[in-house]
Automatic annotation (TrEMBL):
The lineage of its organism: Bacteria, Bacillati, Actinomycetota, Actinomycetes, Kineosporiales. InterPro entries: Cellulose_deg_GH3 (IPR050288), Fn3-like (IPR026891), GH (IPR017853), Glyco_hydro_3_C (IPR002772), Glyco_hydro_3_C_sf (IPR036881), Glyco_hydro_3_N (IPR001764), Glyco_hydro_3_N_sf (IPR036962), Ig-like_fold (IPR013783). Residues 455-614 form the PA14 domain. Keywords: Hydrolase, Signal. Belongs to the glycosyl hydrolase 3 family. It holds the Pfam family Fn3-like. One of its GO terms (molecular function) is hydrolase activity. It comes from the Bacteria. This is Glycoside hydrolase family 3 C-terminal domain-containing protein. PANTHER family: BETA-GLUCOSIDASE (PTHR42715). Residues 1-32 form the signal peptide.
Length: 889
């Protein structure tokens, strides 16, 4: 099997935590030998006792130096390292050394396996430590309120109990490696569009039952050393400035004993310390000497700095960082990461494979899968089938240690006697494909696409572009495949798409651009040539202006143009980012450049690149279409449709090959208008470096798929709004949007149940190559006087098929016995069970007590209503096999 790093760009980008880690503000060597006694080095003492002993000795300068996110001096004279953090929701980031690219957080959640989650965390923690870091920014705990979220793939789904379980286990794994886990993003960070300005309005009951519930599990069971507060506002106050969130809820109610660190540039002033912030992240200069000066002039209470320093010290002692600091901890500036030993990468790679295997979700199968040795030819179709598939932003692992692409994996597993042919079918995806609107004109219809970019031009606010916007030599000129652009952090800061980024400074500032190209139509007819854009744009065909629009808000503008097959047309597009609020000075959430030249085709027309893929599929026994999206930080999706006309590609391939299997490598849910025409569908998410090996094993049945959906797949783009969650992309041009969480506690699958809306695939769905029988459900009642003993559900599970398989038994509770409105169905427990064919097992599932309670805002407390509670046992939230009744006494 060929090991590749196809399409991987090693970019030393400005990251959330990395930027300051090589600061040269301080210089020091190893901790100096001191004559004074250091009683805090007594390892028989608790972390709290040791922290208190150090704190008694510290000067104000030492305390404030300690509260520097990355790049500080630490306190080497007392053996205390500086905080040195690195991004790491889905593996440990490094732009210079190879690290293990784990499957993303949503994939991990699909396993419903906390043991695997702990092993996953240990991989990330150990590699962060090996690279000289003592803090890791992960897990990502942003509940999947909306399927459009650009960072959906980083987190662990839409159910608060599952999210808390998986995150807590990942945290335990990270910290077992001797680093501090920085769980993120606290709290209500569900929108990437205008994330630094969006004001979330949520009632207290919903806050407690849905969004804080997973953090309660994380704090009590994961015990993270740190929590990262988020960019957004909650009830008019930024999360990192919000005393209700940070002090009342996190520290007081949940009992969090670690330190709160802000996200990059998410602090807002010295008053944040009084609200409960302990460490100001990079990008906001209110730490170190500046913080000391603020204390000395009375702007920040000295007691608050003492508490913050004690929290940092406690976390370092609790994680063993003081007793066993990573190599180079007392060398400033921080040494460059060293190569991780091959044996370590090999062992960690095995965990990446296990997670990828356990997370693949078989959505549909009518008999083509699993493939057998009788298959003699396979078409592997997809522009990214032979490339690294990952998202963009701080969660991406850009330098995977041992990558196999899907084409690699299938070719190797099929063997030398099987003919494997590849066809791209479409162009590779990029961040521009998060934009809603018609599919981009493909490279098969365009030739000689010449792009020119000018930096900093403001353009004009009128319909026509100011010619001065294109004055002088462009800052960047190059050939491109398409006219399809979206800038921002996920397009340029860390790029894991095959489409080359613009680079800095073009990625994060106003620009003007001009594209020229030759367009050749695949058939004669009338085409809808469109510009989907924000900012002034014009389209010319053979020198004639056919579209001109000021683009003050994002939209699509189309001209119906008759084209003749085989004839070449001159295309010119001119564009300036001059819309209101398009660049508002906050790079974390600005709209940025958005423009696409799209088209709609005459009926029956198939683009040339799709025609080529169809011919490969026609002559193959099985067609495997690898379909993907690309999303990332600060960029929500505008649509749930597969980008780059991949829906059309799948339809065309399935029309000529009834044994078409679609492998989805997506950030989350997508719509599937072709579902009834294909033989099989497997969701593999962004599966990390083992994507090729794992997908091949699943397709061939070497691995029996056992993953379950941790998010609901809507049947259409209209359904999320029907349950109360609008697309956050709609706020992209609003400077200070307000979003009200009116759906209350009915988030995700609960909302579908409450509204009677049938999704494409329900939460918890996932098929197997075998079948399972459910029998004999019994319940063990819950006694409120003895809450330490959980309610239980017992059942008998049988593998009724012909091969070994793993089932995730899911237990849901119905409406609680109270007049207060509670969810129709809510996950209360689950169990992952492996059985050989014909074997039975008695399964006991403990139910989470919170699922039997609701939050009473009037008394600020959990209420456990007594009475009978319906219980549903099944293989998904929509496929219930057994029912029972639980008594709460």
């Amino acid at each position: 099997m060929t090991e590749k790093r196809a399409g991987v760009r090693r970019r030393a980008a400005a990251l959330l935590l990395v930027a300051a880690s090589t600061a040269t503000l301080f210089t020091s060597g190893a901790p100096a030998a001191v004559a004074v006694e250091q009683p805090w080095m007594n390892t028989s003492l608790s972390a709290d006792q040791r922290a208190d002993l150090v704190l008694q000795r510290l000067t104000l300068t030492q305390k404030t130096n300690l509260l520097i996110q990355s790049g500080g001096p630490g306190i080497p004279e007392y053996g205390i390292p500086a905080i040195r953090g690195i991004d790491g929701c889905c593996g440990s980031f490094s732009s210079t050394t190879a690290t293990t690219a784990l499957p993303v957080g949503l994939a991990l959640a699909s396993s419903f396996d906390t043991d695997l989650a702990q092993a996953y965390g240990k991989v990330s923690g150990s590699e962060a430590r090996a690279n000289g870091y003592n803090a890791l920014a992960g897990p990502t705990m942003d509940l999947a309120r909306t399927p459009y979220s650009g960072r959906l793939w980083e987190s662990q789904g839409e159910d608060p109990m599952l999210l808390g379980d998986i995150a807590a286990a990942q945290t335990r794994g990270e910290q077992s490696a001797g680093v501090t886990a920085i769980a993120k993003h606290y709290l209500l960070n569900n929108h990437e569009s205008r994330r630094a300005h969006v004001d979330v309005q949520v009632d207290e009951r919903t806050l407690q039952e849905v969004y804080l519930r997973s953090w309660e599990t994380e704090v009590k069971e994961g015990q993270p050393g740190a929590v990262m507060c988020s960019f957004n506002e909650v009830a008019g106050e930024h999360a990192c400035s919000n005393s209700h969130l940070l002090t009342d809820l996190l520290k007081d109610q949940l009992g969090f004993s670690g330190y709160v660190s802000s996200d990059y540039d998410a602090a807002h002033g010295y008053a944040d310390y009084a609200a409960g912030l302990d460490v100001a992240g990079p990008g906001w200069q209110i730490s170190g000497p500046n913080l000391q000066a603020a204390v000395e002039r009375g702007e920040v209470p000295a007691a608050r700095v003492d508490d913050a320093a004690r929290r940092v010290l406690r976390s370092m002692f609790a994680q063993g960082i003081v007793d066993n600091p990573p190599a180079g901890s007392f060398t400033n500036p921080q040494p460059a990461p060293q190569a991780i030993p091959a044996a370590t990468l090999q062992a960690n790679g095995a965990v990446a494979e296990q997670v990828a295997d356990a997370s693949a979700v078989l959505l549909k199968n009518t008999g083509t899968l699993p493939l057998t040795s009788r298959t003699t030819s396979i078409a592997v179709i997809g522009a990214d089938a032979d490339a690294y598939i990952d998202g963009g932003g701080s969660g991406a692992i850009v330098n995977p240690a041992n990558l196999t692409t899907v084409l690699d994996g299938i070719t190797a597993r099929a063997g030398k006697n099987v003919k494997v042919e590849q066809a791209a079918g479409t162009d590779p995806v990029s961040l521009a494909d998060t934009l809603p609107g018609p599919a981009p004109v493909p490279s098969s219809a365009l030739s000689d696409v010449q792009a020119q970019y000018w930096a900093g031009a403001d353009g004009s606010s009128g319909t026509y572009i100011d010619p001065s916007a294109f004055a002088g030599a462009p800052q960047l000129a190059r050939t491109e495949k398409q006219i399809n652009l979206r800038t921002g952090l996920s397009a340029d800061a860390i790029n894991t798409s095959q489409v080359a980024p613009l680079g800095f400074p073009l990625a994060l500032q106003p620009i003007s651009a001009r594209w020229t190209a030759k367009l050749t139509a695949p058939a004669t007819g009338t085409y809808g040539l469109s510009l989907s854009h924000l900012g002034t744009a014009r389209l010319y065909v053979d020198g004639v202006e056919v579209v001109a629009d000021a683009g003050t808000t994002y939209g699509t503008h189309t001209a119906q143009v008759p084209l003749v097959a085989g004839r070449t047309y001159d295309i010119r597009v001119e564009y300036t980012t001059d819309a209101p609020n398009q660049f508002d000075g906050v790079f974390n959430d600005q709209a940025g450049a958005m423009l696409r030249l799209g088209w709609t085709l005459p009926s029956g027309t198939v683009p040339t690149n799709i025609q080529q893929a169809v011919e490969v599929a026609r002559r193959s026994e099985v067609a495997v279409v690898v379909a993907r999206d690309y999303t990332g930080e600060a960029s929500d999706r505008g649509s749930l449709s597969l980008p780059q006309d991949q829906d059309r590609l799948i339809e065309a391939v399935a029309a000529v090959n009834p044994r078409t299997v679609v492998v989805l490598a997506t950030s989350g849910p997508v719509t599937m208008p072709w579902l009834g025409k294909v033989s099989g569908v497997v969701e593999t998410w962004y599966a990390g470096q083992a994507q090729g090996k794992s997908i091949a094993r699943v397709l061939y049945g070497d691995v029996n798929p056992s993953g379950k959906l941790p998010v609901t797949f809507p049947a259409s783009d209209a359904q999320p709004a029907q349950i109360g969650t609008k697309n956050p992309f709609e706020t992209v041009t609003q400077l200070n949007p307000t979003v009200s969480y009116d759906e209350g506690v009915n988030v995700g699958y609960r909302g579908y149940q409450a509204k009677g809306v049938t999704p494409l695939f329900p939460f918890g769905h996932g098929l197997s190559y075998t079948t399972f029988g459910y029998e004999k459900a019994q319940t063990k009642d819950f006694k409120t006087k003895d809450p330490s003993k959980p309610a239980q559900v017992k059942l008998q599970l049988t593998n009724t098929g012909k091969v070994s398989g793993t089932e995730v038994v899911q237990v849901y509770v119905g409406k609680l016995p109270t007049t207060v409105e509670t969810p129709t169905r809510a996950l209360a427990g689950y169990a992952r069970v492996t059985l050989e064919p014909g074997k039975k097992k008695n399964v006991t599932v403990d139910l989470d007590t919170r699922s039997l309670q609701y939050w009473d805002a009037a008394t600020d407390s959990w209420v456990t209503p007594k009475g009978k509670v319906p219980v549903y046992v099944g293989t998904s939230s929509g496929d219930i096999r057994l029912t029972a009744v639980l008594d709460v006494m």
